[in-house]
Write a structure and sequence with these properties.
Layout (H helix, E strand, L loop, with lengths): L30 H16 L18
Amino acid sequence: MSSIYDWSLQAPKNANADEIINWAEGQPPSSVNDSACAVMQRIREYLPDHGGSIEFGFWKKGDV
């Protein structure tokens, strides 16, 4: 099974770097949504390896 760790730092090598993601030139339009969702899945799988914590907040003007 492939993972985010199989992705390359060289962008052209990533077209088929992951078995569930297809960002190849000329990809069928029907694969765009599935590929985008698969990228989100891979990033979510990656988070627990690095603490899994994402912090964010919303501030009103003047709170900071």
